[in-house]
Amino acid sequence: MTRRMNLALSIANLGYHYAAWRHPDMPAGGNMDFRHTLHCARLAEQGKFDLIFLADSAAVRDLDNPAIAREMEHQIVKHEPVALLAALSAVTRHIGLVATASATYNEPFNLARSFASLDHMSGGRAGVNLVTGFSIDEARNFGLDAVHGSEFRHERATEFCDVMKGLWDSWDDDAFPRDKATGQFWDRAKLHYLDHAGKHFKVRGPLDVARPPQGHLPVFTAGDSDNAMEFSARCGDVVYGGQPDIESARAYYAAVKGRLAKHGRSPDAVKMLPGIMAFVGRTQQEAQDKFDRMQALIEPKLGLGLLAVNGFPDYTGHDIDGPVPEIAATPGRKAFFNSPLMAKVRREGMTIRQLYEAVSGGFWHLGVVGTPNRIADVMEEWFTTGAADGFNVQSPCIPVDTQDFVELVIPELQRRGLHRKEYDGTTLRQRLGLPQAPSRYA
Ligand SMILES: Cc1cc2nc3c(=O)[nH]c(=O)nc-3n(C[C@H](O)[C@H](O)[C@H](O)COP(=O)(O)O)c2cc1C
Predict the structure, then answer these.
(1) By percentage, how much of the chain surpasses pLDDT 70?
(2) Going by CA atoms, what residue is nearest to atom 5 of ligand 1?
(3) pLDDT of residue 329
(4) What's the Cα-to-Cα distance from 110 to each of 102, 105, 192, 398, rounded to whole Å?
(5) pLDDT class for 331, splitting at 50, 70, 90?
(6) How are the residues of the chain apportioned to helix, strand and coil, as percentages rounded to the nearest 5?
(7) Which atom from ligand 1 is nearest to the alpha carbon of 130?
(8) To test the ligand 1 pocket, which listed residue (54, 131, 363, 392) has its Cβ within 8 A of the most ligand atoms?
(9) Fold held by 6-282+366-432
(10) What whole-number distance in Å separates Cα of residue 345 and Cα of residue 14?
(11) Among 311, 149, 331, 335, which residue's Cα sits nearest to residue 224?
């Protein structure tokens, strides 16, 4: 069978470009407008994507640092993702529906329950992106004054995931004979109490939702710390990556896949989907013009704030058209500081403006400005040389750039046989090429 790319469309707010909302054709109020999200989901179905993906954290972040001009950003308010996907499940047919949820600030029973419902409502199209949270603002909304350490969060997330999957197995697939003749609605022999008692959770069960159509929903994970990669290898089905260049993406791909064997899993049990941000044009010049137009919409105050978010010193008061003064690495931003972008800063003596434009261009993930052919070349190279099993498409402006991606890049990927022309299968697991998950009691 031909190996095809898995494609996710990440529909974060109005897009991955910080000035997306200022684009003349963008619906600036789209964050809270259901019709906006529905339009994006339909575009994803038109492009035969596997799924739409909603990143999330349960907080409004970074309000306390005055250097960060949050008042100029659109990525600020949003819908609660499971509620949003539940509504979308009723008005879409094919697209997978993946929401982010935190294993640090939820109980496994709550998430097992809401995601099982979403899987039933959507006919087996749901997935959960199980994150551990890094934001102090989120911690403060859940009774904490500091973020738990990485080890604690990932240990909890691993147990969380086991409990959640265990709860999904509460009922056998055929537990409900609903026999009107005998009066037996369900079969006691096909009900299982989890009776879990671990370090972080004590859960008796059973779940009050029948076993999800997919058995276990696909679990998405992310992160490049040792703890995060171990968590991905043990619990993840799809790993969302943020590597900016092919060498680091190959290293990450090999590092995660290399850990699977010790968990008794085969290398293709996990799909690696790095993020890609593409500015598409019919000609290279058209793509460059689009890119330049967006960059020009970043006010210096916003740009300087973005540098602050990414761990740079506050450059307020410096000449933004002068060279970047000095760069000190901060913990947690290792990949960023070792990135090709930073190498370029040092090599070329970039100005502060050039630096924040590069950052706001989303180029700490893979970024491409080019024709459909050029973008497909990059994706194909990543896909065929051990850097990716597919991509999480992060359009700069959603839906403006998503439309271009669907109309221009998708046909090129299809022409090359890298992407499906029609939907096959019905569940998200099938679309992703993941086997049905058997119950632990089977
Ligand atoms: C590409 C990528 C996407 C992520 N998306 C989210 C997200 O939507 N919400 C969230 O709370 N954390 C998200 N995370 C953070 C991870 O869940 C994890 O907390 C992070 O990698 C920090 O782990 P560490 O402390 O071990 O480095 C993301 C991480 C990466 C690399």
Answers:
(1) 95
(2) 55
(3) 62
(4) 11, 11, 18, 31
(5) low
(6) 40, 15, 45
(7) 17
(8) 131
(9) TIM Barrel (3.20.20)
(10) 29
(11) 335
Amino acid sitting at position 74: H
Assess contact for 160 and 108: CB atoms under 8 A: yes
Determine if ligand 1 sits within 6 Å of the CB of residue 57.
yes
Q: Can you give the residue ranges of every domain in the chain? A: 6-282+366-432
Nearest atom, ligand 1, residue 221 CA: 17
Contact 121, 86 (CB under 8 A): yes
CA of 275 to the centre of ligand 1 (A): 13
The residue to which tokens 């006919």 are assigned: 123
- Ligand 1 centroid distance, CA of 56 (Å): 10
What is the pTM for the complete model shown? 0.95
Whether the CB of 240 sits within 6 Å of ligand 1: yes
Residue 235 has phi, psi (to 5 degrees) of -115, -20
Task: Report the pLDDT averaged over residues 56-73.
Answer: 91
Which ligand 1 atom sits closest to the C-alpha of 100?
8
For residue 8, list its beta bridge partners.
51, 392
